[in-house]
Amino acid sequence: MEDSICPLVLVVDDEPSVREVFGVMLTHLGYTPLLASNGEEGVDVLRTRAGRVAVALLDVQMPGMDGPATMDALHTLEPDLPCVFVSGETGLYTSAALIARGGFSVLAKPVFLKELRRVFALVTNEADFMGAHKPFFSAD
């Protein structure tokens, strides 16, 4: 059940166990996760919650619409939606290329709760311990 007080986070990952873990982590951090199994589903979820999603958490490597293509589609609906990429393997993409394309940050799997908390604090302006916005990389 969505709690209107908690910021909504769209999680798009093709692995059910990864989606579930991110859901638990985000709930623990005070967010309401919206889980999608692929890019197309993620776009549909965002469409139904226009203007209410605080950030998208996107796997880079997915069948069909990969993470960067998903971000592009999400940005056609909400150009300013921050997108955080997560991946065990970014494939043809480098972290720098994902940031240059419009990603907010890139986190390497496994993602630890402390990393997720720090990046989401930056995304949602809950903390300013890094000064002005600078892309955050956990690994390349």
From TrEMBL:
Annotated protein name in UniProt: Response regulator
Cell membrane in keyword set: no
Keyword entries, A-Z: Phosphoprotein
Residue numbers of 4-aspartylphosphate PTMs: 59
Recorded superkingdom: Bacteria
CDD domains from the UniProt entry: REC
PANTHER family hit by this protein: RESPONSE REGULATORY DOMAIN-CONTAINING PROTEIN (PTHR44591:SF3), STRESS RESPONSE REGULATOR PROTEIN 1 (PTHR44591)
Residue ranges constituting the Response regulatory domain according to the UniProt record: 8-124
InterPro entries: Bact_response_regulator, CheY-like_superfamily, Sig_transdc_resp-reg_receiver
